[in-house]
Amino acid sequence: MPLSCRQPIARLLRKALVAILVFTLCMSCVAAAAGKDYYKILGVSRDASQQDIKRQYKTLSRKHHPDKNPGDEKAHERFIELAEAYEVLSDDEKREIYNRYGEEGLKNQGGPGGGGGFHDPFDIFAQFFGGQIRFDRRSGPGGRAKPRGPDVHIRVPVTLLELFGGTEIDTDISKQAICPHCDGSGAASPDDIETCSTCGGSGVRIVKQMLGPGIVQQMQTTCDECSGKGKKVAKPCPHCKGTRVQRASDLLTIRVDPGMYDGEEIAFEGEADQHPDHEPGSVVFHLQQQPHKTYQRKGDDLHAEVTITLLDALVGFNRTILHVDEKSAVDVGRSAVTPPGYVQKLPGRGMPRHPRSGSSRFGDMYITYWIQFPTAISSSSKDAIARALGGGGSIEWDGSSSSSKHDRKDHRGRQAPRGPQHHDEL
């Protein structure tokens, strides 16, 4: 073929090739734009870091959680969308597929949105805010389950107010993490990982021992050259020095629901120390209730002690105390005589109960009254008291003795209860 004819044909082929590449790129962009925009759902840019993605998910998932928006179907759908977006964008491999081919590409790869579907959005939420401990034993090389690392237990002090109304506590924990530079291999690069020449990569070696003439014992033992890994590192990672792990910090948000108990556990699965050879355990927070200046908690009930004067005990009184929520007032009082140690029950003024308990939403409150006696009285007051209490028919006595054994040092300024305690309800 003449040279003059070949040149136009070559130009046509180049143009055709460019057209095919442009068409392919456009189709990829169309496919990516056709599905959900996970970046827009989370409110992050396409070059957002994993830390930004995690932080934004934590903020928005708390805002749209169904428990905070009861009956709001839009908030529930938004909560599910946020979990789907985080599940894709927090995984580097899934994120790369999504960036190139969109949601359709994930379906074709069998990832989220495909045959396997997404994980439970509440499970993803529990990874950040705590939940029940699950034992996830994923398989390691050769299909063998990796051993699970130990759990980390941390005590968290909480006030009675926080247990009453619920709260969220951000805590920064230091833990061992897989080195991000070598991905846990301990090598400076993949080319620096070599097969162990002693065991041939099996991780074990055969040891023969002569027991006697013609008698040989053969034993299998872990290769001491590669410590049973089958691989050796020629040049260690400069960041972790070949240890495969580094110290790192992580921010966890502890979600304390209203009515939780002292000693209750909140677990974050898979957030304990990491190591390439085992699955991480859980970080388990133990709630530790701090003493309250007014109230004591017993189960779902609240108990408080109120000191009244002798005059109040005889003629009646009305009093207002502040509830544990530090907002509402609790009105207490009696018109009848109040004996020492008298217990008054206020139904429904205690701690919140968990919905699954099946009983009323709140426990009860019990007020125990102690009597404050005067330290001294004048002669004229004595005469007045004697005239008021001395033998008149309008006064009824309970018949109890005045034994001094009840007037102990630990009850200075108040009178200890005698016999069975009485109580009534408001």
Question: How is this structure best described in words?
Answer:
This protein has 426 residues and is of the alpha+beta class. Helices cover 27% and strands 25% of the residues. The strands form 6 sheets. The chain has a 5-stranded mixed sheet with strand order 10-11-15-14-16. A hairpin with a 2-residue loop joins strand 10 and strand 11. Helix 1 packs across helix 5, helix 3 runs antiparallel to helix 4 and helix 4 packs across helix 6. The longest helix has 32 residues.
Shape: elongated
Count the DSSP helices: 9
Q: Give the biggest sheet.
A: 5 strands, mixed
Task: Quote the average pLDDT.
Answer: 79
Uncertain spans: 132-144, 402-420
Terminal Cα span: 110 Å
Order of helices and strands: HHHHHHEHEEEEEEEEEEHEEEEHE
User: What percentage of the residues does DSSP assign to strands (E)?
Assistant: 15-25%
Please bin the fraction of helical residues. 25-40%
Q: Mind telling me the C-alpha Rg?
A: 37 Å
Sheet/helix structural class: alpha+beta
Strand arrangement, major sheet: 10-11-15-14-16
* Total strands: 16
Summarize the SSE layout with pairings.
Blueprint: H1 3-34, H2 38-42, H3 50-63, H4 73-89, H5 92-108, H6 121-129, E1 152-158, H7 160-165, E2 167-178, E3 193-195, E4 204-212, E5 215-222, E6 231-233, E7 245-256, E8 265-268, E9 283-289, E10 295-298, E11 301-309, H8 310-315, E12 317-322, E13 329-334, E14 342-346, E15 365-372, H9 379-389, E16 423-425
Parallel strand pairs: 1-9, 11-15, 14-16
Antiparallel strand pairs: 2-7, 3-6, 4-5, 8-9, 10-11, 12-13, 14-15
Helix pairs in contact: 1-5, 3-4, 4-6
